[in-house]
Amino acid sequence: MAEDVYDVVVIGAGPGGYVCAIRAAQLGLDVACVEKSETLGGTCLNVGCIPSKALLHASEELAHAKKGLAKHGVKVEGVSLDLDAMMAHKDGIVGQLTKGIGMLLDKNDVEHLQGTGRIAGTGQVVVTDASGTKKTITAKNIVIATGSSPASIPGIEIDEDRIVSSTGALALKAVPEHLVVIGGGYIGLELGSVWGRLGAKVTVVEFLDRITPGMDGEVALQFQKLLKRQKMKFKLSTKVTGAEITNAGLNLTTEPVDGGDAATLEADVVLVAVGRRPHTDGLGLSEAGINTTDHGFVSVDEHLETNIKGVYAIGDVVPGPMLAHKAEEEGVAVAERIAGGEPHVNYNTIPGVVYTAPEVAAVGKTEEQLQEEGIEYKVGKFPFMANGRAKAMSSVDGFVKILACAKTDKVLGVHIIGQDAGTLIAEAVLAMEFGGSAEDIARTCHAHPTLNEVVKEAALAVAGRAIHM
Length: 469
Ligand code: FAD
Ligand code: NAD
Hints:
The protein is an alpha/beta fold. The protein has 14 helices and 22 strands. The site of nicotinamide-adenine-dinucleotide (NAD) has 26 residues, from helix 6, strand 12 and strand 18.
């Protein structure tokens, strides 16, 4: 094959893009992956999943050492925070992993082109490097994997100093006295938890009358209760209408969503966590005639192909949950389709996890969705409180809830709030992927004593026969 002509050119090296590139190369295709950042791995590795989990873990260790160990008979004295060391640990992990992606691309013979990609017509991508030098490459197939960036709201300008997005909140130089978080979703609750554990007072201002929209309502209520116990404050049904920077910090103006008097909220730092928007600036979509949705996402069909043949889009830049593992699944599916396969992504079995303490994890339908869709269902619930391992760990908050079809017993949704929920959800995902029933989970032998037994008991509870309750 002539130089600079590729079977596949992937634009963006986040979890969608780099996984797509590697899978396509595994299938024998000539692949280039264009990335504008100096580091690979996208939002996930640089300013998303990995750094946030590093800080969540480290801050949980601190909280545990301060408050959780004594009751286990472990005495620790003089526990204190070294924020610089914590940040250095986080940065070290990010550095290792982002370099690792470069090695994976090399190992799989994927050409890594550093520069900004723009679609310049059928099968043409122009790559502009940091010095402004342009190079045109030819692609039989193009995959748009350009991800997303933080959204803001009118009247609030993110400066990544006092008013930060998640990126700034992952790198604060000091623990704020009062952190106000706008948005009670994934980012707000995870990063609010980090800074709360490190000593900040945290107030979450949420537009809706509940946190984590889309999550099963019963779980969301329990979640908010547990976060309140950790001293997180909530102002629900409230909107922020403006921010004024003062010598002392910031004054935020808030208003009840349903009308009423405005109020002022003082803060040292404000985290804006109201969602993310697809990143398509400068990609040349309209010149190339590629359709987008009203909200600026790239429009794709069920095979993730745009209206232009041979141009695909995956990950955060297309509609759907903005999750790294969803982007990866789509990356694999597109690579396999380009190589002539018939893959599919099962969007009903994509788990979502909030990595707070306790964690919250879900897959499939919520009770509200089943009611809305008129599907008859049975509920099996089991609390961590009744599990021996959870008691031994002093991690007894929360429950597993399994929703199964009333007629067939097929598992339709699983919702977990509790210790290690993000790991426990995997067996529910697998059961659902295999079209399993609650009885299938209930009849599966689970090791004792493990937290997984809570999942088994919840499955037994679907048929009203939990043993330990
Ligand atoms: P991205 O990861 O955004 O990658 C897109 C890449 O494309 C970037 O590297 C960008 O520089 C590059 N790019 C953009 N335009 C161009 C161009 N024109 N030319 C060349 N390159 C370009 N998800 C989870 O599943 N679990 C989590 O725990 C989790 N935690 C998160 C925590 C935070 C704080 C944030 C912000 C997000 C988190 N997410 C999490 C979401 C997750 O990071 C994203 O869903 C995921 O990164 C999307 O992958 P992607 O490949 O679509 O896009
Ligand atoms: P989100 O969609 O999870 O939550 C945004 C919240 O902000 C919602 O509750 C929404 O009602 C609220 N909101 C919107 N406008 C508002 C306003 N004007 N005032 C007050 N509240 C307002 O978005 P996010 O937390 O910014 O996260 C972005 C994406 O990143 C998520 O979609 C998520 O998929 C991904 N993410 C995932 C993880 C994870 O998997 N653990 C972690 C972090 C981020």
